[in-house]
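Our platform keeps sequence and structure together, in a single record for each protein. Because each token names a local backbone shape, the row as a whole describes the fold. One such record is reproduced below, unchanged from the form in which we store it:
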Amino acid sequence: MDYYQIIADNFESTIQTIAMSVDQVAEPIARASQLMVEALLEDRKIVACGNGVDAALAQLFSSLLLSRYEYERPALPAMALTGDGASLTAIAQSSGLSETFSRQLRAVGQPGDVLLCISSGSGASNLLRAVQAAHARNMTVVALSNSSDSELGNLIRAEDVLLRVDAARQPRVVELQIMALHCICELIDHSLFGSYNQE
């Protein structure tokens, strides 16, 4: 087995996917960051959710807001609905898997909060219900989605943001979603705290 060729092919695929995606995702990334900045300035919070690897991305994003992205600054209110295993399994057992996020949102979501819904696969029912619950709570939604998930995109309203990543393989989708989340974090920091001396 030629390990080098496999590695080189993956790197080349990622580079090509990134290069082909900039024009498509730049405007939604900017809009998503503006939506979140407006919520944070109104003392609202960002609530994130996703399944599997997307749950890890939700936790990554909330940790970057709560702690820091690159430079020291005040903590920003964010939470991932994916981090409490006891609550998730209790909800799944009593109400079903499709309610794992929507039930939490009905309890903690407030008008003006932002739901970050991450999907690198196809429309899972718990994500769709999360968006519906967020809308019912007068929250706005940033959907970080992909080209194969039309169901999630169909729930997005004019005031929401659909940030759709187009890639043939899920690993490339996840890589681009991580880049998008990092860009959003940087734009939030820049908008709220100005530019940093990056020596």
